[in-house]
Write a structure and sequence with these properties.
single chain, 73 residues, mainly alpha
């Protein structure tokens, strides 16, 4: 059996920060994916949103933002 020295309080604190950061990033990414999924569903069901999507460089997110932001596109 190999023995390792006990981590110091500073090391344990640093590891805790890394683990909390990793968890936060995973949750944040999951939320951002859910919003993207909902925007794509709305985009596919809206004919007006599909028109700007045909422009090169414009995807579903900018197209839906444009259609939602302009009163009468």
């Amino acid at each position: 059996m190999r023995f390792v020295p006990t981590k110091t309080l500073a090391q344990q604190g640093c590891l805790m920060l890394h683990r909390a950061r990793h968890l936060f990033i995973c949750r944040q990414t999951a939320v951002i994916r859910e919003f993207d999924r909902r925007l794509i569903v709305w985009h596919r069901s809206n004919a007006t949103s599909k028109r700007p999507d045909a422009i090169p460089g414009v995807g579903p997110a900018p197209a839906t933002a444009l259609v939602a932001g302009v009163a009468d596109p």
